[in-house]
Amino acid sequence: MPNEIYPPSAEFAARAHIGSMDQYRSLYQRSLNQPAEFWGEMAERELAWFEKWTTVFDWQPPQVRWFMGGKLNASYNCIDRHLETWRRNKVALIWEGEPGDSRMISYQELHRLVCRFANVLKSRGLKAGDRAIIYMPMVPELPVALLACARLGIIHSVVFGGFSAEALKTRIQDLEAQVVITADGGYRRGREIKLKPAVDEALTECESVQNVIVLKRTGSETSMREGRDHWWDHLGREEGEVCPAEPMDSEAPLFVLYTSGTTGKPKGIVHSTGGYLLETTLTMKWVFDLRDEDIYWCTADVGWVTGHSYLVYGPLSAGATCLMYEGAPDFPQPDRFWRLIDKYRVNIFYTSPTAIRSFLKQGDQWPAGHDLSSLRLLGSVGEPINPAAWDWYYRVIGGERCPIVDTWWQTETGAIMIAPMPGATSLKPGSGTLPLPGVEADLVDLQGKPLGANQEGYLVLRHPWPSMFRTLWNDPQRYEDNYFKKVPGAYMTGDAARRDEDGYYWILGRVDDVMNVSGHRLSTMEVESALVRHPAVAEAAVVGKPHEITGQSVACFVTLKKGDYDEQQLGGELKQWVAKEIGAFARPEQIRFTEALPKTRSGKIMRRLLREIVTSNSVSGDVTTLEDLSVLARLSSHQDED
Ligand code: WTA
Fold first, then answer.
1. Can you tell me the distance from the alpha carbon of 527 to that of 607, in angstroms, rounded to the nearest whole number?
2. CATH 3.40.718.10 is right for the domain spanning 107-249
3. Ligand 1 pocket, CB under 6 A
4. CATH topology of domain 440-511
5. Share in percent of the chain as helix, strand, coil (round to 5)
6. Domain boundaries, the chain
7. Measured in angstroms, how far is the CA atom of residue 339 from the centroid of ligand 1?
8. Which of 159, 252, 257, 279 is the most exposed, having the fewest neighbouring CB atoms within 10 Å of its CB?
9. pLDDT of residue 160
């Protein structure tokens, strides 16, 4: 299997949006040779504009603007324009809660829900340019909240429900949000995960927030603060179902999404309205080959960029029927996903390699009991997919009939950048294959010099693309320094990759201090800063450790302040501490105590060595710059904690 090539079947190609390599190549060439004509044409065809743009794009590195002078509204594009067509009664969202409750929401119904909630926001005095933090479980009101904000031009920032009160607080503060939209809680593995208490805790230090709107999902006991907190339903009862969509500048920020960078402070990635919407819409057709009759399911939580682009904005703008599921994949049994595919006859299924690996481990008996024959296309995102996982996904889930689109992109890129067009591109398992139209990918060395075939290097994107992020919230300097300084004029992705003799890209992973745990980005520095906030910790160094299921896990090296400690107990306490400071998904798998950390003479922690220790428990290579070789010796001989 590993070196095999999978060309599209004639049957798939015949019905696909892009059905041949010639078609792909001509689109790609045009997008690079005549970018203004190409993107202008796409924007005209794919989106509804209130006012047409005057200039397609303006690139003054590192600043780019797309469709200047154009006015549109993302909520209008995702809902209203479908109401003028037969789609008005098409199901937009099929939702299933973890306990088994379900809802079907048509585009018409979605319109009513969004307008009503937009009117709620309006009546709280919110207007274009204001900021809303959204901290909710995976229920239909979550996309409704996003779309209601977009309708009024309120910039939203979704904080994944797994983040702690502390993480929520720093995001609210950085954004100076006026409103928090949340719920009493949600369901996960049969238990209620409460959300409102974390909001209350965060808000003890957030003066900007005047209103908290709380959806009743679980109905459990929830404390409400008079004057500040309001029930969603209660406010909604007063409002009407008409709310015109605000004409927004194409460049107006649609949302901010915080993601981990190489420092302890998360970065607020700012996305635009017009460019973002255009490319998320187009990739639904290019990559997912979406047809009107499809049932499409992206398993990502809306708290991450995949949920924004491929559960809300892209698919709804493209008029899709989307399945949305609230809970855990293995509740009440490990076959929940296969049960859902069978029940709703899902055609397109998009998930992460971590999920695939855990399904593989649980065994073939779980999918075997279900009819998965409705599937026609599979997708993967977030991490490189290893051959064993690819093969299992292809055979057991796809029945050897469904192409797998391995989609490479990032929070910063907004939309998929490197991926197959499944009716055109031959697949090579483990490769994201070729760049999409408008994506001028390249590989360079440390000096920025382009590399040849099969050489490993840094992945950069040279020409700007419409869905590219525009800046970092409150930190334009960091935007420039982080991404555009290393290779002049080009965007540095932070990933290493190789390009083979056919021009196919093979992503090797991050080259910076960002870990990838279950497809979630987590910075080593963020975990280190959390650890050193603990009173017993003097110093900490964190590295990603290869993990069979989650890709990487969090491994910590900790030196303690003077004192008597029970290391076993403290190890457990520190894991819990990190979970509380950042969120449960960041909980370290391993804490190792050490008397000192290996450092260079200039005092920099030698992470490469630590990575080697956690990977192989031995160290090779050049260690002559080490400050104290005995530290290294002690670390290497130290056995795993658990
Ligand atoms: C990694 C998620 C290999 C990569 C959409 C990137 C991938 C980071 C793939 C972005 C893939 C994403 N193959 N690696 N198909 N997709 N990555 O911002 O390291 O959460 O830089 O966006 O995930 O993670 P983010």
1. 14
2. no
3. 259, 304-306, 381-384, 406-411, 432, 493-495, 507, 509-510, 516, 521
4. Luciferase; domain 3 (2.30.38)
5. 35, 25, 40
6. 107-249, 440-511, 514-637
7. 28
8. 252
9. 96
